Every structure is written in structure tokens, then in C-alpha cells.
Amino acid sequence: MIGQMVKKEAELSQITDNLSTSVLVLNQSLLIEYMNSAAEALLAASLRQSQGQPIKELLPAEPAFIEKIRQVLNDGQGFTQHELSLILTEDKKITVDCTVNIDDSNPDTCLLIEMKQVDRHLRISREERLLAQNVATRALVRGFAHEVKNPLGGLRGAAQLLEAELANDDLKEYTQIIIGEADRLQSLVDGMLGPNSLPNVTKINIHEVIERVRSLVLAEVPEGVRIIRNYDVSIPEFMADKDQLIQSVLNIVRNAIQAIQEQGTIELKTRIERQLTIGNTRHRHVMRLDITDDGVGIPEEMQQRIFYPMVTSRAEGTGVGLSIAQSLVNRHGGLIECSTQFGKTCFTILLPIEMETSSNE
């Protein structure tokens, strides 16, 4: 019996180990009989450790998926599910295209599970969409600003001329309202455009940027808000505009403070990512800054639009902070991403440390 299992494992290994698709074989008790090298890498588990173990030990956070596998044994109908999210550990989640079928050639009625990881492709697609969205938004805002600024200047000038002709000071109150509102609209348009100067690039330390932001917001936050730091101090200095990065980080941190209101925690976490693709460009080293809060999250209907200007859930907000932050980070060849759910919203700033790149993907 043991000899047959060894022979079978050798045959499976010879067939599947060169596949990029992850392959698992389960018996009728949903115990793992075999997994190829791609599955070991994907699930961060070795065949030696996992063989004979229940699949639920490998995927403890996925009872619904395991029940769906069990149903295949009961009704004999396999299934394919695209973009299936699987939680492996608290810190690791993968997205796969998954197919589960019964192996009819096996007298023990084994289940054959095939998984192909699609996180990277989805991520690249999402990043390309964000970058294209930002380019389109900037073009739209520039056109809008041009159309608004000219008549706005004329309106303000006319109000000033009218005020000079008025003898009644009570009437001048109305011209002051016109001038004040024109100035407010001018500031709003300028805010939507963001800084119009070229980046002043110098060698910077990202933690000096974050500490500057932290010192600014500590004077603003209520007593019930904690700001904790989780830094990778080995991150080297890199070329960037310090003031623009301070503005970007400050906009996001203030957004997080507003999300948690009077009580909560904000974590500032830095790490190095290696061989990371941003959009279509591969970088050897990328600085990753995660700004995470434990607030209520972003409403679902807003999640695809949060980097557009004028999008806000607060009555008193202008909705330009995140748009400007994204634009400033884009100027550095980077990107801001967002993931959100109730109790955890994370804005991730990705900045290439080296501007040289390898071939496009």
C-alpha cells in the first residue's frame, strides 16, 4: 500500500511539478494526498508537512470554500470560480482562479483542485486604471479651471469697480460678499489643481517625512486617537520632493483622523518591496508606506471614486485631499492604493527608490 502511494506520488510529481498552475489532490475524507511545487509555493506549505492532513488545516479561515469542495463529492458536480479570495493567514490573502473536479480515473474518487494565482494581474490592472484615472482627472480639472478662472476674475473685478462707485456703505456689504465668494471659488479651483511647480528633488529620508507629518497632526488629534509607528529603519534615502511627500502623507493621515473621529488607532508602517510592478513598470526596490486606521471604512459606493476631486462623505469637506495626494505621488513615479472594510482602512503609498527600471510587463 505504501509502495503504491509512493509510486502514485512520483507519477503525479513527474506530471505536475513543471506546471505553473497549483495542483492539489484530496481523497474522499478531504485529506491532502498530493500537492505540486506550485501549490507548495502558493500556499506556503510543503507536501511533507501537509500530506495526510485535512484541507481545513491548510485553509482554516475558509469553511465556506471547504464546504463547497465537500459538495462536489456529494453531487459529483465540479465547479470553477474566478477571482476567489482565500485567507491563508491573518497577514496573507491570495486571489485565485480555482477549478475543483472529481478524478474519475481514480477508484478512490479523489478530488483534483487546480488554482492559478491572479493577484498580480489584478493588481497591475487596478494600478493601470488608477494611473489612467489620475491622468484623465488632471486633464478634466485643468480644463475646468481654465473655464472657471476667466469669468471668475471678471466677476471679482466688476464687483470691485462697483464697490468703488457706491456711496452707501451698507450696499458695499453685498459687493464684499461677491468678492469673498469669488476668492473662495478661486482657492477651491487652485486646491483642485494642486501645486503647479516642478518637484524640488533632493535626497530624503522617508521617516523624516512621516515624523514631520506626525508632529503636525499630534497637535490636532483628540485625546482618544493613538498614532503608532512601525518603521523599517533600513530603508535607504532616495530622491524625492520632501515638501510634496509631506503634503501627500499629511492629506491621507488627516483623512484617517476624520474617519476614526474621537477614538481609534492609526498605524504608520514602512517596508521595502522588492521586484514590484507599478502600472507597467518593474522596479527593483519600492518604498511602501501603509497608513491604516480602525474606523468605519469607506462606503462601498465611493470606493471606486475616492481619488476623484470633489468626492467626499463629509458635508464640510472639499474632496480634494486624496486627489492631490495621488497626483503628487504619481509625479514621483509612484501610486497610492486603498483597501477598506469595517474596522480597517489602509492607504498604501508606493514609491520607487530607484528610478531605473527593467523591461515592461
Explain this structure to me?
The chain contains 10 helices and 12 strands. Mean pLDDT is 80; it is low at 1-6 and 355-361. With 361 residues, the protein is an alpha+beta fold. The chain has helices at residues 2-16, 37-43, 47-50, 55-58, 63-75, 119-165, 169-193, 206-218, 242-260, 321-331; strands at 22-26, 32-35, 79-89, 92-103, 110-117, 202-204, 225-230, 238-240, 264-278, 281-293, 335-341, 344-352. Helices cover 44% and strands 27% of the residues. It starts with a helix and ends in a 9-residue tail after the last strand. Strands 2-1-5-4-3 form a 5-stranded antiparallel beta sheet.
Strand % is 25-35%
How many runs of DSSP E, i.e. beta strands? Answer: 12
Tell me, rounded to a whole number, the average pLDDT. Answer: 80
CATH class value of the largest domain = Alpha Beta
Radius of gyration equals 28 Å
Question: Strand count, sense and closure of the main sheet?
Answer: 5 strands, antiparallel
What would CATH call the homologous superfamily of the largest domain? Histidine kinase-like ATPase, C-terminal domain
Q: Helical residue percent?
A: 40-55%
Give the oligomer, counting copies of the same chain as homo and different chains as hetero. single chain
Order of helices and strands: HEEHHHHEEEHHEHEEHEEHEE
CATH topological fold name of the largest domain: Heat Shock Protein 90
- The stretches of 5 or more residues where confidence is low (pLDDT under 50) are 1-6, 355-361
Name of the CATH architecture of the largest domain: 2-Layer Sandwich
Count of DSSP-assigned helices: 10
Q: Report how far apart the termini are.
A: 48 Å
Structural class: alpha+beta
How many structural domains in the coordinates?
Answer: 3
